[in-house]
Amino acid sequence: MQAKKQVFPYEIDETSYNRFEQKFNMIYRRLWDKSLPTYGKMFEYNIDKHINSGEDGYSRIDFALVAAGWTVYEKFPFAFTWRREDLMDIGYGVNWMRKKYRISDLKTFTAKVKKAAKFYGASLVGVANVDTKWIYKSGFIRPAATSETDSKEAIRKGDAPVSILETPIELPEGMDKVIVMAIEMDQVAISTAPAQPASAAAAVGYSKMAFAIACLGEFIRNLGYRAVQCGNDTALSIPLAIDAGLGALGRNGLLLTPEYGPRVRICKVFTDMPLITDDINLSFIEKVKEVCRTCYKCADACETGAITKEIDPTFEPASISNNSCVRKYYVDVEKCFDFWIENSGDCGNCIAACPFSKIQSFSTSSEFWK
After folding, report:
1. Mean pLDDT value across residues 283-288
2. Could you read off the pLDDT of 321-335 as tens digits, one per residue?
3. Which of 132, 145, 173, 213 has the highest CB neighbour number within 10 Å of its CB?
4. How many H helices and E strands in the chain?
5. How far apart are CA 242 and CA 342, in angstroms?
6. Where are the domains of the chain?
7. Residue 99 DSSP class
8. 158-166: long-range contacts (C-beta < 8 A, 24 or more apart)?
């Protein structure tokens, strides 16, 4: 029997746990793992069939809404930078940015940083100490000042070697705090899942993420501190969000928040800025634990049976695309991704079905457009 370590809210097999390698994420794995039925496929695989089908929620207008929603995330080159190469004078001068801002009251200062995060678009924000367990062991590192679209063009076409996904990832020394932000996704759009307006809600969430982290990163640098801006890259977002007090892990494998349930996208900014950390939301974690143990709405809504109906969490992963050695409900993301390709977009059924999402009535795509 291997030793398990209880570090609430996680129960971890410390003897076997290894930092996750980003290449095993399904979005990347479909590029190199020839054993997958989705090998080499992405959303365009069935898109013509959907557009020509006349099915509500899959028209050309619906897909146009989705693709446009990604614009800022895909095309804004400074959203995910690890450093500012040069101080840029946009009319305010730069000399006042060179020295670290003198913090006289850490509590008040932390509150102002959180206020800035919400001002830039975060629906929720929390601060945690960096736990290196959640930093990817290796992954893709975007070249500086390069957009998502340009930096991953070769990867998406399958022309890049797997080694491009295997760069060791280590945060710069001294980056010991992480500001985690959750961006609410549109409730009505999510309620149409798995139709394309739900995918559009996710797309817009990603673009809002890019805007929020870009602005917050520059805010931090303007005060003389360092910032590493991240979306899904660099580290596992969900455990960092839990550490920052934003919520709990649900049966559906997603962060559940008290305010919006799983109807959020997560982004984060690592920094060396001194900040007061938030407490883990233990009472909500206990509530989610009890609800998820007997609620199977997300599993019932899943069209491929990717979400387990086991009563209790386990240490056994469903596939190599799971971050294993932690007791939790594992989602078979291979089955999940199979449906994404068939659907020509992500799904959202489990998000819409979750009672924590607080969706009182569900809409069709036609109703969404009205």
Report:
1. 97
2. 999 999 999 999 999
3. 213
4. 15, 10
5. 32
6. 5-369
7. S
8. 158/31, 158/40, 160/31, 162/23, 162/31, 162/32, 164/140, 165/22, 165/23, 165/28, 165/31, 165/32, 165/138, 165/139, 165/140, 166/21, 166/23, 166/138, 166/139
